[in-house]
Amino acid sequence: MMEYKGYFAKVEFDDDANILHGEVINLRDVITFEGRAVEELQQALRDSVDDYLDFCAERGEDPEKPYSGKFVVRVEPELHKTITIEARKEGKSLNAWVNTAISKALKASKPGA
User: Fold this and answer.
1) Which of 33, 26, 27 lies closest to 47 in space, CA to CA?
2) Are 32 and 44 in contact (CB under 8 A)?
3) CB 3.0 to 4.6 Å from 56: which of 41, 60, 63, 80, for a disulfide?
4) SS3 of 2, please?
5) CA atoms within 13 A on the CB side of 40
6) Rounded to an integer, what is the distance from CA 22 to the centroid of its chain?
7) CA-wise closest residue to 33 among 49, 44, 19, 18
8) What residues are paired with 108 via a beta bridge?
9) Which helix (H) or strand (E) holds 31?
10) Does pTM surpass 0.85?
11) What is the C-alpha separation between 26 and 65, in angstroms, rounded?
12) 10 Å Cβ neighbour count for 60?
């Protein structure tokens, strides 16, 4: 995993072309890059992200931000009711309760947790 200015990218190796290629994964817009060596790949990521930001600026558009902190989750009505009750029991908002539950689940899913 690579990161530049909050944009995260996954990298793969193309054995046929003998090249590393990557794609920014935390956007709906598409940002790709490639290189033959690690240093070249790192520079290509920086160049591609900077080009994206420059392109947005030239068009007078705000670049897409990597994650706003908001997402919609659809659940069954009974589950919605249950988690709302649990949140209220703990004196938390539904958002705070869900945030805590997700954080706990992620910690529990890590090896050695």
Assistant:
1) 33
2) no
3) 63
4) strand
5) 7
6) 15
7) 44
8) none
9) none
10) no
11) 9
12) 6
- Determine the 3-state secondary structure of 96 from DSSP: helix
How far does Cα 23 stand from its chain's mean position? 12
Question: Which residues are 19's β-sheet partners?
Answer: 14
Residue 59: DSSP 8-state: T
Q: How many helices (H) and strands (E) does the chain have?
A: 3, 4
State how far the Cα of 38 lies from the Cα of 8, in Å rounded to an integer: 16
The rounded distance, in Å, linking the Cα atoms of 75 and 90 is 21
Token pair for residue 60? 């007078």
The DSSP secondary structure of 60-74, one letter per residue, reads T-PPPPS--S-----
